[in-house]
Each structure stands twice: as structure tokens, then as C-alpha cells.
Amino acid sequence: MGRKHRPWRVEGLPRDHPLHPENEEPERSGYWSSTPGWLRWLLIGLLLVNWMVMSSLTAPAERTEVPYSVFWAEVEADNVTEVTAVEQRVTGTFEKPVTYSEGAGDAVEVDEFSTQRPVFAEDDLVATLLDHGVEVRAEPEEAALWEQILLGFGPTLLFIGLLVWFLRRTASLAGGGLGMLGRSRAKLYTPDSGPRTTFADVAGIDEVKDEVVEVVEFLKNPERYRLLGASIPRGVLLTGAPGTGKTLLARAVAGEADVPFFHLSASEFIEMIVGVGASRVRDLFEQAKKAAPSIIFIDELDAIGRTRGAGPALGGHDEREQTLNQILTEMDGFTGNEGVVVLAATNRPEILDPALLRAGRFDRRVVVNPPDQIGRRQILGVHTRSMPLDEDVDLDALASSTPGMVGADLKTLVNEGALLAAKRRHARVMMADFTEALEKVVLGTARHLMLTSEEKERTAIHEAGHALLGIVTPGADRVRKVSIIPRGSSLGVTFQSPETERHGYSSTYLRGRITGLLGGRAAEELVYGDVTSGGESDLEVASNVARQMVGRWGMSERIGPLTVLPGAGQEQSVLDAAAPSEATRELVDAEARRILDECYVDALETLRSHRPSLERISRLLLEKETLNEQEAYDAAELPSTEFPKPPVTAEPV
């Protein structure tokens, strides 16, 4: 029976065309049928050459056959020098050539002869030969045919066996034999492969799901769109920070559409051999066309989608650019790819080639942003739906304590909480498990260091300075946790997070943040009169914020609304036409230094005016080592008119 015609496969081909799906020949299977033609002829040629060489080496030397009576007469005449016997067969050499004529033929001179000793001969041949001084040799019986084949063909068969083993191993490692390096390495997930990922597994990015639901609907009901003249987007590009759920969303699209899903990383196209990447692209799209309707998902597209001509080429050929050219052709070339949707994900859309982003290729670009508080709550619900939770677990409070976290971070947080609960032999996961897991993920793993009393006091003063400035600075992020337990590379940590999502930062907020970062150093100088190296990371972050304020966000009057520094993930050369002059760069450094100096003075003055609160927080830290939000605000003992204390119910960690 012929296969059912599927209109996805081709465009514009008549039914009698040899490339039409209904006229396709079934693919041959088996190792020999998949072996390249040149390799087949090579193996056949080796066997023929081996047969000829073996035949020439094992064939006996040509000798003239003489009657046994002639041989005996020459022995009696002392004209035989040596003989070799193999059973009743005798070969040898005459000392002087013997003229011999067989029948009516011409006479020939014979010096090397062979003869057959009759089985009924009763002469004592050996004694006679020895008496006449003939050298006598004997050889064993000729080997059997199977022995001759084994000895003659053994080396060639061994070589062929090693070659076949090498090809099979290459096939298992590279997805094909030596002649099939161009085969695609894409992993195929079909609706029958196992549990499917659906939109129910994707949370916190509802607006993104709305963008791709049209693709799912088209793959499910193509005729409804065709009747209205609509065509499916050829490609959907998912962009966003790492861990936001781009790959998960692509798998959900495949699961909802109930179609084959080809998944691979863009780096798997590239090989050292020029042309292999383009061949793999052709093979991938060919497989997708045969399985259409289908989805191709290319992860980390920037590995091959960088702007052409941006990097050096070797000998005028660039494997990456050839692969990119083939992708461009397959997505929007002369041949139709209807029914094949290309999904791609990247963290760096700004470096992609413009040809990839034009209409007709990646028609739709979807930005996957980090989730807000409601989205984080939904994601936590997805990851804890099969987890036994204690009654004290408050996912809303946990979501409010995790600003900036993406789906992958929240999954790690939930898993760490479950691991801690199992370690503590809890029957259910408790809020304390999630709280400690959050500290481990955000602040780092606690280290057991033996600190001297002086180091602990300095660390307490340092962290108290951070905490106090976070408490008294208007608009600053709330202080959630203060600890002098060494974590990661720090001897102490002050954790702050906003009450609501922040999508833009004012100059006042950024200055307050710098002031808080410099609070630890300012507290050490205020109390001890000198500083330590403990504020290294604080200085690094504060310096970066100040430079961004001046060089990117136009928050300096002397620089003005001018972008001087490159954006995140971008590089800038001094030879670039957009690169700032040396004088401008010096001005950026001077303005950043001015902002840091002003914020440091503000930190010193604020701590000096709240010195008792600073000492109370540091004493309580030395006593308890870790303070939560309520304890930190209570220790500050600020008047309610200056800064209200947080309610007890706001304590998420």
C-alpha cells in the first residue's frame, strides 16, 4: 500500500514527480547497503588482489614432465644433481640438459624436470640416488584447501575486519560511518517517546506562552488557517537570560502540538572538516520534512548565527559561515519547508546575523523575561506540586524573597530544600528547609572557619554598617538577613531584597545602593580608624554601579546623556569608530570617583549620627551570629517617625 499523502511535505511538485513522497523508494537498511560505494569497490579489489598474489606464491615452479624411465636412466648415468620428493611426486635438476621428445612433438632440452613414481615400482630409489651422489630432499604433503585459504587470505581478512570495526565505532560515536560525518546528530522526541512536556509544566511566563500558542494551533489545525490565507511563522526565536525557560517552552510547544521534535545544540553542527556542518543542516531538514509536521529546536543559536565576516577565516573558508548560509537557505530558499517550524534560543540576540532575523526566517521574536513575584509563586507551585509540604510552608513569602531569580534558580532552590529535609529526616519539607536552602543558594554554603575574637568583632561591625544603612536609607531594599557566619568567599553577609519588583532605577536609588555597599568600610573606619580587605567585593560592585551611572545611564552632568561604555556582553576596541576618546574615558573615571567619594562621605555621616544603633546591631550579631529581618530592625531601635519597623508577618526568611 502506498503511504498516505501529506500536504506538508512538498510544495508545487506534481504527483508523478520522482521526488514526490508517494513515489519515494523505501530506504535500504543494513550495514552493507549504507556503506559508501567507493568503500565497497575497495574491499572487492583487495580480495581480488589477494587471490592473485596467493595463487602466484603458492603455485609450484613450472617444470617439464618426463617419464619415470627417462628419470631412472639419467640417475644411472649420474646426470641428476638433486631431487625433491612429495609422496610419489619427484622433481629435480639434471646436471646436463637432456634432449627429450614426447611423441611426435619437437624435441626440447630439459634441465628441471618432474615425474611421477609408479606405485607398483619395487626399485630401491633412495639407495640408488644416494649411491650416485644425488642430493635427496623430501617435503610434506600439500596443505588442505582450507589451510591454503586461511594462510593466503588471513592478512586481508584481518585488515577488512579491523576496517569494519573502525567504521562501526565511528558510526556509534559520530552518528554515521566514515562516509556519513554529515549526518545530523539531532535527538528526536516523538509523542510516543514518553511523558510529554505541556504548557501546564511552564509557569510564570504566561505572556510568552500566548506568543507561541499560534504555532501550536497551526500545527494542530492547519486547514483552519489555510482557508483564511494565513501561513505559519517559519521560525520563532526565543531570547532571554539563562534559566528563564526557553528550552522548556520549546519542549512544551512540541508536547502540545503532538508532533515530532528534533532537538540539538548549534555547536553540534560544527566540525573541523569544512562542509560537514552544512551537510548536517541539510540532513536535519530532510529528516524534519519526512516527519512533517515537525519542530526543529536549535539551542544556543549564537554559536553559528554570529554576524558573518565578524571573525577570521582560514584559507578563505569558514565552516561556521557555511553552516549559517545553509540554515538561511533551508529556512527560506527555493524549496518549501511547509510544516517544519524552527524554534531557536539564544542569550545574545544582539550578535546574530541580520539575515537570520529578517521576515521569512525568524518571523517571530519572543523575549523570555525573568518572572515577577506572581510568576515566581506559580513556578514554585509547579516544582512543589509532587512534594509533601508542611503546613508552615508559605510559597508567597518565599516568592517575595527571591527577586531576580529565574525558573532554573527556583528549581534549584526547591531541590535544595528537599535535600535538606531528607538530610534532617523530615517527613515533610518545612519552611525552615526552604529558608536555609535560600541562604545557601543566594549567600553561599556556610564555612566552618576558626575566627579570632578580633576578626569576629570587625566582621560584626562591617555587616552592621551594611545593615544599618539599608535600614535608615529611604527607598533602599529591605534588610532580610544579616550574618557573620562565613559563607562562600565572605566572612559575613547582609542580604537585602526589594518588597516589590524593580524595573527601573533612579539616580537616588543607585546612590543609596552605593552608600549601602560602602557602609561596611565606613563602619570599620568609624570604629577602628582603619579598614581591612574585607570590603573587596563591595568596592567592586560599587565601582561598577558608579561607572554605569556615568557611562551608560547619563546620570552625570559633566558627561551628559551620552553612552560611553559598551553594553553588557559587548566589547569595544579603541579602534572602533564609536569608542570614546581618551579625554572622555578620563572624565568617566573622574565622575565615577566623585560619586563614590560623595556616597562614602554620606555613609560616614549617617553611621556617625546613628552610632548607638550600629553598636547594638553589632553586639547582637556577636551574640546570635545571624539576625533575621525583625531582629535587625528591632536592634536598630529607630523612632517610628524616622523609619517604621516592619510587621512581624513580613518576615519571609
Task: Name the strands of the widest sheet in spatial order.
Answer: 6-8-9-10-7-11
Count of DSSP-assigned helices: 21
Overall pLDDT confidence: 77
The outline comes out as: elongated
Please write the CATH class name of the largest domain. Answer: Mainly Alpha
Number of strands: 14
List keywords for this structure.
Rossmann fold; 44% helix; disordered C terminus; five-stranded mixed β-sheet; single chain; 21 helices; Signal recognition particle alu RNA binding heterodimer, srp9/1; alpha/beta; disordered N terminus; 653 residues; six-stranded mixed β-sheet; 5 domains
Characterise this structure.
The chain has 21 helices and 14 strands. The chain has about 650 residues and is α/β, with parallel strands linked by helices. Mean pLDDT is about 75; it is low at about 1-15, about 15-20, about 25-30, about 175-180, about 315 and about 640-653. It has 5 domains: about 30-55 and about 145-175, no CATH class; about 65-140, Signal recognition particle alu RNA binding heterodimer, srp9/1; about 185-370, Rossmann fold (3-Layer(aba) Sandwich), CATH 3.40.50; about 375-445, Orthogonal Bundle (Helicase, Ruva Protein, domain 3), CATH 1.10.8; about 455-570 and about 575-650, Peptidase M41 (Methane Monooxygenase Hydroxylase, Chain G, domain 1, Up-down Bundle).
Protein topology:
Elements: H1 37-58, E1 64-65, H2 68-76, E2 80-86, E3 89-100, E4 108-116, H3 125-131, E5 135-138, H4 145-174, E6 187-189, H5 206-220, H6 222-226, E7 235-240, H7 246-257, E8 261-265, H8 276-290, E9 294-299, H9 319-331, E10 340-346, H10 354-357, E11 364-368, H11 373-383, H12 395-400, H13 407-423, H14 431-443, H15 453-472, E12 478-483, E13 493-497, H16 507-517, H17 519-528, H18 536-551, H19 582-609, H20 611-624, E14 626-628, H21 629-636
Parallel strand pairs: 1-4, 2-5, 7-10, 7-11, 8-9, 9-10
Antiparallel strand pairs: 2-3, 3-4, 6-8, 12-13, 12-14
Helix pairs in contact: 1-4, 5-7, 8-9, 11-13, 13-14, 15-16, 15-17, 15-20, 16-18, 16-19, 17-19, 18-19
